[in-house]
Write a structure and sequence with these properties.
The protein contains 8 helices and 8 strands. An 8-stranded mixed sheet has the order 3-2-1-4-5-8-6-7. Strand 2, helix 4 and strand 3 form a beta-alpha-beta unit. Helix 2 packs across helix 3, helix 5 packs parallel to helix 6 and helix 6 packs across helix 8. The mean pLDDT is about 85.
Length: about 240
């Protein structure tokens, strides 16, 4: 896959690279990711205990989820195309002596060609809404996971409520995220992600929504997928003769 065919938006990569030095600032631009990380880690770990598993974190950024999964016993590979963010992730792992985590600058599609069916678990969190072709990412994640393995996604619903809360509210009113973090047109309806998953032989097992109360500054998971939502999918097992 050449640089001209990479499933990545240069503007999106630049956006997160420019903020790379802030990834591990708990009060900085990525504070929401640090706040929701325990929720998503616990949800993943309850559905598929991570200890001893070979895990791939797609679009790992500065390594917030990768680091957390490694610390509960997973063997984690984090991949991203934002060079500066990856360097921050690598440096953080060295400084904090995080075990069993490695980072690579490679696209998920290229890695799928190199290492098909290599991972027990694949995570792709807060990333699909930032690429030109999210269906391609879903296909690659499905190719990378072993039959029976789990693939977890989280993204933003394309709905009026999501626009009001996640874009207008979070970016312009509350300042929880840098302005321009999300583009409404790139958000993905659950029905669309479910279709991408089915086409890639991923069976949808569980869905959860993520909510935020600006007064208490608390996040929690529930059944409302109208804004932020998470999918837990499982790769179809190969039938034995």
């Amino acid at each position: 896959m050449t640089s001209t065919t990479l499933n990545a938006d240069p503007a999106e990569l630049a956006k997160f690279s420019d903020l790379a030095h802030r990834w591990w600032d708990m009060e900085g631009e990525f504070r929401p990711l640090h706040q929701i990380n325990p929720l998503r880690l616990d949800w993943i770990n309850r559905l598929c205990p991570l200890a001893g598993q070979q895990v791939l974190d797609v679009g790992c950024g500065g390594g917030i989820l990768s680091d957390a999964m490694a610390r509960v016993g997973a063997n984690v590979t984090g991949i991203d195309l934002a060079t500066k963010a990856l360097r921050v992730a690598q440096l953080h792992a060295i400084e904090t002596q995080t075990p069993n985590v490695a980072y690579r600058e490679i696209s998920v599609e290229t890695l799928a060609q190199q290492q098909p069916q290599s991972f027990d678990v694949v995570t792709c969190m807060e990333m699909l809404e930032h690429v030109p072709d999210p269906a391609s990412v879903v296909r690659a994640c499905a190719a990378l996971v072993k039959p029976g393995g789990w693939v977890f996604f989280s993204t933003l619903n394309r709905s009026p409520k999501s626009f009001l809360l996640a874009v207008v509210g979070a970016e312009y009113v509350l300042g929880l995220l840098p302005r321009g973090t999300h583009e409404y047109a790139k958000m993905i309806r659950p029905s669309e992600l479910a279709s991408y998953s089915r086409e890639s032989d991923l069976d949808l097992r569980h869905t959860r929504g993520m909510q935020y109360n600006p007064l208490s500054q608390r996040y929690w998971l529930n059944a409302d997928t109208s804004v932020n939502y998470l999918f837990a999918t499982q790769k179809t097992m190969i039938a034995t003769p």
